[in-house]
Write a structure and sequence with these properties.
It is built from 12 helices and 2 strands. With 286 residues, the chain is mainly alpha-helical. It folds into 2 domains: 1-119, Multidrug efflux transporter AcrB transmembrane fold, CATH 1.20.1640.10; 185-267, no CATH class. Strands 1-2 form a two-stranded antiparallel ribbon. Strand 1 and strand 2 form a beta hairpin. Helix 2 (44-70) runs antiparallel to helix 3 and helix 8 (187-210) packs antiparallel against helix 9 (217-234). The longest helix is centred in the middle third of the chain and has 36 residues, at 78-113. The protein is elongated and about 105 Å long. The two termini are 56 Å apart. Keywords: DNA-binding, Membrane, Transmembrane, Transmembrane helix. The chain crosses the membrane at residues 55-75, 87-106. One of its GO terms (molecular function) is xenobiotic transmembrane transporter activity. Residues 144-202 form the HTH tetR-type domain.
Length: 286
């Protein structure tokens, strides 16, 4: 997809690095938790498959949500889209790879590491008793679940706050505005570069014909003219585009390179059998 290793892709890897390991941590932690329970009936491979399947939907949902946040950046058009598309796609591919590793490689490694079981706690209560931080989080979570409407209203207020535009935040903070410059070749420069390419290509063809000693001067001239006419015919779309680009008429480079277009056409309409001798800006009778 023509994505290289640059500042944007490296930045995307930095942003995604924490999220990449989360899926694997969740899966291996659930496997360890299930194996630590004294009431667990499943053993070995069946336990690992069950623990992985138990976590599959949560980690897949979180991955889809994160992808839905970053993937629209790849659909932005213009220079901004070209700048942020590698960033967005790098994060998306990293998260998809993280999900794949979490449900394939991690269970396999867990089965290999825990094939002899784990060291049991002295009691099930010792394992199940939450720590101070976990106890605080548990109480907050229970309160939020028991007061759904208050939690929902607080979420709406937070969303309304986040609806504030970036420009409003910047103006309030008094951050100075900056500028981003992109330099592109103008249409005139592109046409002139194409014209020079065709000019050099046709000139090399004419020079090769002029060095053919097996032909008479008249035959060489006729072959040179034929090569010019064939070249004009094959590239008529480009010639028409040049003719309609009025901004080039005042360009000296265009007038110099344009001789290979003008003189073959003029030689077709002269009453005598005429041809253009390459390198000399005039039409001579043969």
């Amino acid at each position: 997809m023509d994505i290289s290793l640059n500042i944007m892709t490296l930045g995307a890897m930095t942003v995604a690095i924490g999220r990449i390991v989360d899926d694997s941590i969740v899966v291996i932690e659930n496997i360890y938790r299930r194996m630590s329970l004294t009431s667990e009936r499943l053993k070995g491979k069946e336990l690992i498959l069950s623990a992985t399947r138990e976590m599959f939907m949560p980690i897949m949902s979180s991955t889809i949500v994160t992808i839905a946040v970053f993937l629209p950046l790849a659909a932005v058009s213009g220079p901004i889209g070209e700048l942020f598309t590698p960033f967005a796609l790098t994060i998306v591919f990293a998260l998809m790879a993280s999900l794949l590793v979490a449900i394939t490689i991690v269970p396999k490694m867990g089965h290999a590491m825990f094939k002899n079981g784990i060291r049991k706690k002295t009691s099930e209560q010792e394992h199940d008793k939450p720590g101070r931080m976990a106890g605080f989080y548990q109480s907050v979570l229970k309160w939020a679940l028991n007061h759904k409407w208050i939690t929902f209203g607080a979420a709406i207020l937070l969303l309304a706050y986040h609806a504030t535009s970036i420009q409003e935040i910047v103006d309030t903070a008094g951050i100075a505005k900056g500028s981003l410059y992109f330099y592109f070749k103008s249409k005139e420069d592109l046409l002139l570069s194409l014209l020079k390419y065709y000019y050099d290509l046709l000139r090399s063809t004419i020079n090769i014909i002029s060095q053919d000693t097996h032909l008479s001067s008249r035959e060489r001239l006729a072959k040179q003219m034929l090569a010019q006419f064939e070249f004009l015919t094959e590239n008529k779309d480009f010639i028409m585009m040049l003719m309609h680009e009025s901004s080039l008429y005042s360009n000296e480079t265009f007038r110099q390179f344009g001789l290979w277009v003008q003189f073959p056409i003029r030689s077709m309409v002269l009453p005598k059998n005429c041809g253009y001798l390459w390198g000399r800006n005039k039409v001579e009778s043969v």
